[in-house]
Design brief:
Largest sheet: 5 strands, parallel
Structural class: alpha/beta
Low-confidence stretches: none
Number of strands: 12
Strand order of the largest sheet: 2-1-3-4-5
CATH architecture of the largest domain: 3-Layer(aba) Sandwich
CATH class of the largest domain: Alpha Beta
Shape: globular
Distance between the termini: 44 Å
Order of helices and strands: EHEHEHEHEHEEEEHEHHEE
Strand content: 15-25%
């Protein structure tokens, strides 16, 4: 069992899915907690403080998006990873999920192999070496506390947004290719598209309210 110590909360109103996912994740060494609706998911999340929460987008009580937004509004869940399960494969659904603060999504019907690969890639990002504080212009980024100060105001970023901003700020003026960003932030095992990066960049720009990330058309992005 190679992933001992990680707690995962799965919330889905379909008992068969809960059973299949729980079996596969527990078999892979994770501690699994389950919930069958959105309200129970919030309660279990607050009681167990999981490292990763897997939410069905369409649930009774509260939808996965509502649960995600509520948890992202609580400081205690700043570092918690969130993944959506969705039977809706259209771009609007995927983008709305990412914009609500999720780190990734997996489509139904679920392949246990794909799920385990995505879970493993996400949780590998939890284990990071100590990194230094970056100060560029009016922006200060503290990776230990996951705090960003912009124009003397603290800005709250979702985990992936923070990681993306930190990556770009490491090399001011340097261009990061889209492929580099995907590999560094989402890992090679996670299948996401260019649209995912665009969504996160847009959210960072909105929250910082500083024009510090430049799009290099057809290539990638740079921080300046």
């Amino acid at each position: 069992m190679h992933q001992n110590g990680f707690r995962i909360l799965i919330a889905d109103d379909e008992p068969d899915i809960l059973e299949i996912l729980s079996y596969n994740l527990e078999n892979d060494g994770y501690q699994v907690i389950t919930a069958s609706d959105g309200n129970e998911a919030i309660e279990k999340a607050e009681n167990h403080r999981p490292h990763l929460i897997i939410l069905d987008m369409m649930m009774p009580g509260k939808s996965g998006v509502q649960v995600c937004r509520l948890l992202r509004g609580k400081e205690a869940f700043n570092d918690t990873l969130i993944m959506f399960l969705t039977a809706l494969n259209d771009e609007f659904t995927q983008v709305s999920g990412l914009e609500s603060g999720a780190d990734d999504y997996v489509s139904k019907p679920i392949s246990p192999k794909v799920l385990l690969s995505k879970v493993g890639a996400l949780l590998r990002r939890v284990r990071k070496e100590n990194r230094g504080i970056i100060k560029v212009g009016d922006i200060t980024i503290d990776p230990e506390k996951y705090i960003v100060i912009a124009n003397d105001k603290e800005v709250v970023l979702a985990k992936k947004e923070f990681e993306l901003l930190y990556l770009l700020a490491i090399k001011p003026g340097g261009v990061f290719l889209r492929s580099e960003i995907l590999s560094a932030i989402w890992g090679n095992d996670v299948i996401v598209g260019d649209r995912t990066i665009d969504v996160h960049i847009r959210k960072i720009r909105q929250k910082l309210d500083i024009d510090c990330i430049t799009t290099v058309k057809g290539v990638g992005y740079k921080f300046e």
